[in-house]
Model the fold of this input.
Amino acid sequence: MSTETKWGGILPPIPTPFDAAGDVAVDALLRNLAHWNEFPLAGYVVLGSNGESVHLNDPETFRVLETARVGIPEDRRMIAGVGRASTRETIAWCRRAGELGADAALVLPPSYYRKAMTPAALQVHFRAVADASSIPILLYNMPACTGIDLNAETVVDLSHHENIVGIKDSGGDVVKLGEIREYAERRFAVVAGSAGFLVPALAVGAAGGILALANIAPAQCLAMYDAAVCGDWEEARTIQLRMIRVNAAVTREWGVPALKAAMEMRGLFGGAPRAPLAPLPEARRDELRRLLADAGIL
Amino acid sequence: MSTETKWGGILPPIPTPFDAAGDVAVDALLRNLAHWNEFPLAGYVVLGSNGESVHLNDPETFRVLETARVGIPEDRRMIAGVGRASTRETIAWCRRAGELGADAALVLPPSYYRKAMTPAALQVHFRAVADASSIPILLYNMPACTGIDLNAETVVDLSHHENIVGIKDSGGDVVKLGEIREYAERRFAVVAGSAGFLVPALAVGAAGGILALANIAPAQCLAMYDAAVCGDWEEARTIQLRMIRVNAAVTREWGVPALKAAMEMRGLFGGAPRAPLAPLPEARRDELRRLLADAGIL
Amino acid sequence: MSTETKWGGILPPIPTPFDAAGDVAVDALLRNLAHWNEFPLAGYVVLGSNGESVHLNDPETFRVLETARVGIPEDRRMIAGVGRASTRETIAWCRRAGELGADAALVLPPSYYRKAMTPAALQVHFRAVADASSIPILLYNMPACTGIDLNAETVVDLSHHENIVGIKDSGGDVVKLGEIREYAERRFAVVAGSAGFLVPALAVGAAGGILALANIAPAQCLAMYDAAVCGDWEEARTIQLRMIRVNAAVTREWGVPALKAAMEMRGLFGGAPRAPLAPLPEARRDELRRLLADAGIL
Amino acid sequence: MSTETKWGGILPPIPTPFDAAGDVAVDALLRNLAHWNEFPLAGYVVLGSNGESVHLNDPETFRVLETARVGIPEDRRMIAGVGRASTRETIAWCRRAGELGADAALVLPPSYYRKAMTPAALQVHFRAVADASSIPILLYNMPACTGIDLNAETVVDLSHHENIVGIKDSGGDVVKLGEIREYAERRFAVVAGSAGFLVPALAVGAAGGILALANIAPAQCLAMYDAAVCGDWEEARTIQLRMIRVNAAVTREWGVPALKAAMEMRGLFGGAPRAPLAPLPEARRDELRRLLADAGIL
Done:
């Protein structure tokens, strides 16, 4: 692991709670944060993919960021998801996030006109955002949602911009993570975007993980990370292998609905996602409970 | 062609003009509409993919729809692009579009959480939108931008909802278009989403086309359509084959930047797209001019 | 339709029959051909995808080609599928096919090292094969099986080689078919590779179809083709739309096992495909029978 | 790493040498093997993807396997690539490979009729092959060439067959490798299929690697493996990161032509691949030489 960055460690990308009417539930958000604050997490991602950023309108986005900053201690990082389809809106939201107290902005590549989003076009976009943003930028590679996969060369080039401090990569291509680690600026943080490949990512030099699983299993995620940092790779692997199936359930298999259901099973506020996402069906809840139990989380 | 629908004919999906500062240029929009109104087009799609809907914020979206309605004669249809990531925001925008005078709403499938967007989930979404919308709904299949390809069975099922009146399909799979035509409600309109396959789509029963090319070559698009409607398939084919390359240039190859550049060559207001889309490079302008000339458009 | 080619018309790509022991059943092949010969089909494709070419070893390949030539009248074309992974083996099989009486060779692009199979590399391959082959070459675009989709520009370039006489395209992209038709040599035949899009392909200038459906519904395929050739597009469309679902069942949905099952329902020899293809499950046979009845084939 | 398997360690998948006339060069094969035998490699894969198996006819396949067995010491494993499109031909070649002295057969999934190659169909195929083969079977997952990606569940199920002893996975999905390692039989070997992800694969319990890079950098591959086995993950990572770019060049980027060119630079017999693969262009040779030098291989 790189120890030269302050953008590593373990951070959960927190879900946005909605009440029975489907409105943002700020109290529930604060209660969840109070629970997570009991663990030595490095910080939080607010309004990432698990935060259903795309489901909120502008006033709701303000409210969630404001509330989260209240609930996140000053000495922990708050990273705000701010990807928008246009460069100008992305810049506007980076600035708003900075004004609302975010320590960094997590920026998705624009993806609607994906044929036009060549590596060169993406470079122009990210540089324009990084130039104009009042807070540092983390790149956010999320091919399963965007259909765009940032390549190593693009990321290495962008690492030379002083306001671009790292990448959250959810694609899981450890060859790419290794190549970025080898050729990017030393200060640039490579962050695993899913607990399914945290240990292999650390093995090639990742600085930490932004892990949906850390919402429901912060202790296990921290233990996996600490073991690898301390050189106990047998222990790290043992935890890693035990976490793969439950992590898949709350991420790529069943997604946010399963993560919210698991939060309820763990005593947190989960609630329903917004449509078109549907609450996890009852039959899958039993299977999810079993997966949580098998992994030692319940 | 089906003659039982009022949702057929030829409609251009119009670009949104931006001024030198990058702001919405409402005057230019009105001037462009005045030009197009000289042709017997059935109507217009406002804020579709060519309208850079995803690049506008909410106030800009209001302004463009309001302005377009002023410029579009009452007896021509105004179809508003209103796809949003959440069901609730999509419904809200369908209603706003209705209040602003749109005759129908063109609704993209939500695509961010695409793994969860099963045919069943999409049905629930579109039905909820159609139930709540004050104006009719056209489905909008645009796999190149969304990564989601509505299948024939889903579309046929949705055709039975009385407030869902048709589909604009830009995927170009004529087998699917034919299957929808055969099994959907008779009143349901199948509309070709690109001039590259208008004639083959008409050959399997499409009712018309929403064609980017109609912004720069309305006469040719109308001639192609009229020839097929009148049974002169030799003439229809001759025009069709001549339009394929120039159409590809202003759609799937170079996209909105090329369409806007071609509009300028045709004496319309084109202007630059919003970043991250970039104006068409100079070298490609020459090639575009040649393609327009080869097709008899310039 | 182009009338300048002798490579048009309707041809079935015939299945290879296997007996109960899984060996090639030459008698059954001859009996099937005798049945098809009663229809005015332009010829046959032997050992294409429906012929399970990839499942045969070299001696079996010889036997099937030899037998087919016996069963195919001299005045009907026999086109032999001869795609191989290496250029040298492809050439060897073109020559053998010529010696065995084939009128043309249908050549798949090599696809194992697909990353290396750039348009330029494919041009070199096809030109080398066409140079060395004793019989004319038809290109065979079959992206569903090869993962490679020949683009229009490559095909147009190859059309200038005098020993390359056409393309069977099973991809179904009618825009591409139209572009090839417009820019390829006039003598070059564009042939639809599936009955699901025969009429739209004819609408953009295709010369005919090599259609799995013609094995079980030669009359309907010929009627669809004849109607379009005679300018009766309403009739052509009516048949086309009726054939889409049954055609999907015996091609892209259930494949060769369904085609063989349908042949049995039609009184031909079908038999089982070779593993790893499995005979059509019983439940699907009922559905297939219903689809055949709905289409007027049974 | 699992130490309970004899199918681990480092093995090069060796290229098949062709002489100037394009014929198999058995002498060159023996000379290459004599060089590799100087390193403590666990064995060799003969006629895998790097061996251009798909480019050889049957007599050539016999000759290469026979020759390789002569050049491979008895105490080193010879694994023969024998994937064929049909179950019956795959079985025939497993048996022939056994008769020619192979210790195991590396079996690709059939991929031509890929739509039909469901997990269930692949299970039936691999079980039939494993039942009938006289030698043990290793599964070969190579999605870049086959378009088929074996999933973890299928592999875990197959691991319970006593004649299926492991998997070479070239897909690089370490989450999948971890899941297989956790749930497959303990004796079942998970083998990394590319040097680009050897260390992360070992971190989740892989038993070794079948690495194209080991043809040209056996010392480095062995050092990387040994460091990880001994728990020196810092050293393993250092070598790993240094190998990523050169490994990409001789595998997924430029493939067999680059591997053969690199072999010549290292004093081995390389020669040209068979068409449609083309020799590495001169310009890329300079770049390849630089990559080899940067990695400390030249």
Chain D touches chain C at residues 22, 49, 54-55, 57-58, 85-89, 110, 112-117, 121-122, 124-125, 128, 144-145, 147, 252, 255-257, 274-278 (CB under 8 Å). Chain D has a mean pLDDT of 97. Chain D has twelve helices and nine strands.
